[in-house]
Amino acid sequence: MEDAIVESQNGRCKTWIEIEKMRESRHVLPWRPDTSLGETEDDCEDPDRLVLFDDITPCLFKLVTERNKFELIVRFLEHLGVTFPAENISLYAHTTDGAKLALESVSQVILCGAEPYGAVYECNPYVRDLYEPFITNIFSQAVSIFSSYYQEEITLLWLGYEIHKLRANKLDKKEQKQGNKQVRKFAKSLLKESHNRNSLLLWKSYANLEWLLGNQEEARKVFDTAIAMNAQDVARCTDEIQKAAKCALYRDYAESELGLLDYRHREKHPGNYGNQSFRNTCTDAMLNRALHILSSLADGHFTPITEMSVPSTKVLKAQRNFQTSMKDLLDHYPKSIDFAYVQHQGSFLVQWSVCYALFQYLNVNLQASIVIYEEVLNKLKFVRESQNDQTDMRSIIEKQTLIDYGLVMKSYINLLHYHTSTHIASLSVLRVPLNRALLAFPEQTYFLEMFIALESRSHLARRVRRYFDGAVQKACTPVPWLMAIHAEYLRQWNIQAALREAQTAEQDTPGWFVDTPYECGITHRLRSLFERAVESPAARHCILLWRMYMKFEVDQNNMDKAKTVFYRALQQHCPWAKILYMDAIGYFPDQLQEIMDIMVEKAIRIRAPLEEVDLLLQHHDAEDSGSISMGNDIINEEGEGSTDIEVHQ
Prior knowledge:
globular
């Protein structure tokens, strides 16, 4: 790989950066001697890669509970760059301390919109391929150390990671088909495991996978099979986790028929209003199938739909059962919580209330479903505010209530977004609950991206700017600052794209001229946001923020200001961040030696010494010169031979 980098002839600076990034990703794990080859610790060429047990003994501690072990593995996988499905609101969100130091690339915060950010969107392109075997080993080993609930959680995260990896990679048609086949095979292999055969959540994930791959009929068969495996009425089930799983199975089946599944699992922007595939209207058959599924959940008897319409008696019975069970659930919450586990997929109240709201949406109207959502949210808010006892039970109740509140709110907003995208409706229907969600989760990127996308439908930036001006003052993490900057970037990008499109369309019109100046009002606001952010206690130690600020000034051709930003970041805020030095070398190649000297002074690890890179380049140039001279000699010899022949003739 290093030979290929040298042969690309990208210059001294770019060659050093690429080799350094490649070695950094390859040397992420400690060096271990290969005993089969007779290696020992003395054979290690790089002593810094050698980690002895005595070195780490003082740092070791033992985790007793499975909950702590599970969260440790999840955090470590996040550190390796694993992106989990955005089903959970609180567990996988950025923590207050971690977000300040761990955020290095835009992809860690923002799901899409990579165009304005360039190289800042991802840190190291070599890491993804080299980490995958290591991440797979972590998942396979983690499954064996857990039992029951957390074993199922790890398995679900594993399958979700494989699906996300497939959807995130840009593959051609043949590679995509092969990747789909491999993921399906992997999902089936998980279901063949003895501890997964009765996992309704895993069957649900497999059915969702088939649906997302376009195999709707196969997905319906999987859903029907999973439901038939556990035909017991939900109301008679005593296990709260099993009840929630079965209800979630019905919910995903109904949402798949409505088209909400593609919306929940999309990898693009949460508020991608331009997605025409989402705007397609449901047929009457799809609506009837969804209503039949939800009615079967309520009355406890499911049979594959055979009629064109759902009988009115079945609907009335389902309406009565939903209403009765909903009242009992609200009265007994949070007493019905299983205090042994925090249910990250949501409690039974979440799944049942969402199914009831969808049923009301299909059977009555949108307003009837809004009443259900508001009633549940008010109950969850009251429970959160009324916890006074200082016990471990209170901690579990708080976590579960927070998760439930976030999941219900997310489902509420998804349904409203679905309705406004498929029907003629006022956007105020969506704005009010979205503002309520932002008050409860001000640093949750999903709701922030939804808010930005909603308001970016017009060129009026008043609402977005007014919100972020207040949100950044209360921010505890860099996320609100980064999202405020992202909103301005998107606005600038959309305006410039519209101008370029207009210029292309009217370029032959006499007197037509469009220019996109570097300096404009959005540019000045972006610079103001960057300056305020780097002075904020919540964001001044964020590596990503300084990377974005430096690239912003480079894009504006203000190289002196970009250098000033770089040295400001090193002086007080992020002198340990190697990625900042790497960016600076790429932006200011004439200062390569000076920046390298600073890295040595700050004890930043350099895996590819500059002298070694120079030798590699010189060796490559010498080989090229040798091959050229050899080719000339051959040509000369051929020329002399032909002359001799002519003279002889």
